[in-house]
Inverse folding.
């Protein structure tokens, strides 16, 4: 398995296609929000034309009402990865969701089994009380647990109570990266990345981002944190002008790219692939094959 990571708008998707063509590969989504159907523009999912070039998997496969986390993603993605391996092809996992990618490559720490007696005690609480109690024990649960989903909240609370530790801390305990797995982080100069973010934002707005968000069901909790959703909702409510909408998306995307950069700089097992100004996907793929010779069987 090969992982191609990097910041949003850095050009991972097109580079992955070039790489897949060279190594007999198939592409697996490694982005948390690109898993969802109904938001292909907002989440910058690969277009129909690109999907025809090489096989792509796990794009737009979840309904927006279905919650997902790193553990669930790992289960689903590993099945796809193993199917690709079974065909004698190279799985290339592409994305910028660091937690999901690491769950896939390193595996998650084992969590305690269900405790029936404790689960009954938790069930007596109201959903609001369960959320409040969870956040008291684990403030970071707001980031990695879909709080509107009572089943996920109850299980997270159960783990906290059984282990005496924050479940979010447990989920950040990793095994070693397996020898048969390798990866790279695509890095671009900040000024170029900022330009690419602006260009992509303009393209998404021109392609109908606002109409796409307008068509979502009333409960969008699972995709509410996808950049563009909240901003489009504010625009539709009259809180933002069109130019303010664009600026809000650009700023949020830049902030997200900075957080991604911080995460991936800590991932020392991933090779840094530096993209020069105007460097083509073909040139980057050749460079990648030089620094990761194991890609070629």
């Amino acid at each position: 398995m090969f992982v191609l990571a990097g910041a949003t708008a850095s050009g991972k998707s097109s580079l992955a296609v070039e790489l897949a063509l060279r190594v007999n590969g198939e592409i697996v989504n490694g982005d948390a929000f690109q898993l969802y159907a109904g938001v292909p523009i907002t989440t910058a999912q690969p277009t129909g034309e690109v999907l025809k070039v090489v096989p792509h998997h796990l794009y737009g496969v979840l309904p927006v009402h279905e919650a997902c986390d790193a553990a669930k993603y790992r289960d689903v993605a590993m099945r796809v990865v193993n199917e690709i391996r079974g065909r004698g092809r190279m799985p290339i996992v592409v994305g910028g969701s660091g937690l999901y990618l690491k769950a896939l490559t390193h595996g998650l720490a084992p969590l305690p089994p269900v405790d029936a007696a404790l689960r009954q005690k938790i069930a007596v609480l109201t959903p609001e009380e369960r959320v409040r109690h969870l956040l008291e024990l684990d403030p970071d649960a707001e980031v990695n647990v879909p709080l509107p989903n009572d089943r996920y909240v109850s299980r997270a609370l159960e783990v906290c109570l059984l282990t005496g530790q924050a479940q979010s801390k447990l989920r950040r305990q990793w095994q070693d990266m397996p020898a048969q797995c390798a990866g790279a982080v695509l890095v671009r100069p900040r000024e170029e990345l900022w330009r690419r973010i602006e260009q992509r934002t303009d393209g998404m707005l021109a392609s109908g981002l606002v109409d796409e968000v307008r068509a979502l069901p009333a409960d969008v909790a699972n995709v509410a944190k996808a950049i563009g959703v909240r901003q489009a909702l504010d625009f539709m409510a009259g809180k933002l002008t069109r130019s303010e909408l664009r600026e809000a998306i650009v700023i949020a995307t830049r902030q997200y790219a900075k957080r991604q950069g911080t995460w991936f700089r800590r991932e020392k097992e991933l090779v840094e692939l530096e993209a020069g100004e105007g460097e083509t996907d073909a040139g980057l793929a050749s460079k990648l094959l030089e620094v990761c010779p194991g890609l070629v069987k």
